[in-house]
Amino acid sequence: MKIEGYEIRRELFSTRSGLKVFEVKEIQSGEIKLLRLADFSKKASRDQQDQWYELYDQYQMKITNFKHLPRVSIINSLDEHRLYSILDCEEGNLLKTEGELGADEVSQLIDAVSHLHRKKLSHGSIKAENIWLTNQGRVILYGAGEIKVTDKKGASFSSDIEQLSIVIQNYSSLSGVLLDQLRNEQPMTIDELEMLIANGGIQENNQKRAGLVEKETVPTPTPIFEKKTKPSPKDDHKGSPNERKKEVSPENKENHDRKKVEQQEKREEHQRNKRETNWGTWVKRLGIGVLGVLALLFVISQFEKPNSSNETPAPVEAKQVVKETTENVSANQVVPQANNQESETPSVTKEEVENLMGDYLEASIKAVNQRDFSIVESFIDPNGKRFAEQRDYNKYLGEKNITEELLNYKVNDITKIDSTTFTVKTYEEYNITFGDGSQKIKTFNSTTRVKVLAEGQLAVNELLNLQENKDTSTEDTAVEPGDYILPNSDTTILTEADIANLTPEQLRLARNEIFARHGYEFKSVDLQNYFSQKSWYSPDPLFSESMISDIEKQNAELILSKERN
Length: 565
Prior knowledge:
- The protein has helices spanning about 45-60, 95-100, 105-120, 145-150, 155-170, 175-185, 190-200, 250-300, 315-325, 340, 350-370, 375, 385-400, 495-500, 505-515, 525-530, 550-565; strands spanning about 5-15, 20-25, 30-40, 70-75, 80-90, 90-95, 130-135, 140, 405-420, 420-435, 440-450, 460-470.
- It is α+β, with helices and mostly antiparallel strands.
């Protein structure tokens, strides 16, 4: 195999799915590069070839200058079925060959994955063969997202963390106690992983790890982990990395050891500062709280002086204010903190929120049509209500073989609730294709809660309301009042008097009538038979409870309470 302008130095590894990785040298500059070749000749899938280009186009736009993730130099093809990407590299070797990660390398690898996630990219295959260790001690993570194309496997943030933990367990010099904690606690986020490692501490491990290359140990003032000495570029012609002599002059070795000590000391100092900052923050908060209580007691004392009247504040009203305040804040809503705390929250513009909604809606459609929830996962708050709802919704549409096309959308309003919360009102128009091949255009007005997560990342937290717009031009407008038990239950708040004369069976039908208006598909055979005879009833596989208005919910609860009595 020949690539114009490049000399192939060696093949690093290959996979059954057709991925081959080579170390190459650019002839003109002499720079080292990594060539990642995807061979689709056995599968002959045009979709996969398009997806390879799309993958690296997206990666190239989002990853431009981060030291632990490579930049893309070229995306091209050898022939009809073989595509390749050439990425920046340095002299070094694969972790799988090199054998071990020191404390600093573990930190660098975590930074690489964290940066990917901040850019809303998942990796999918964090393994030793995709991790490159340079001769200068830098870690570079390759292959982000490739597994989704070559193996058609999903990739998610949570699976990345799981794979990262496994690599650290198998290839790092962390203490045995800390490795046991990793296995037992199974962190699910980058923050959890970093906190676990920071709290557990890094301890020197001079014992051989099963299946790993033995390392040289150099006594130093602080616990560090030394890798074997790397060959210089001049020695490349002497054979493979495992055949090269590991001879280093005493002066160079001393400089190398000193740099490692300095790196480790900086790492430990960073962790100490981080813990001290966290402790200092809590002390400040406690001090502010104490001052607030003292100020409140002083104000109260001014109203309790002997020369004041015998009237006392009404405790009932005070309790009502507290109750009112707490009830107006939902479980997922962030309560604004003191000004000094709010200033730490990264500022977010409404334009950024609008861009998020556009990206989220487009990713939602791709996730539905490709049956891959991980495509939209990075746009959703993992701790929000919307995460599970959308995952289940994707699964449901896949089972029903339903696909969607976003024809149009518009952000009508963005309201800032507090420094970390926005509500966004949108208009959306979809062309929906059902499993039987039939199509239908539907429009919706929705209200969505958007949250600012760690490090300023925006994410969809909850779908607060979804209202389908009825197309009255295609519906039968001549619906007889007798077709409904309670014709106005969707627009008017009912009273006890409105339902007083209904029988238990009529109450049950009237309550389900509210949901039938929005196309709810009933499981009970008698309800199916009853509503299928109504001219206005049209089952909708896309039904969601968010379609039910507050008036309808209140009426349904009233009817249900009557049924129980």
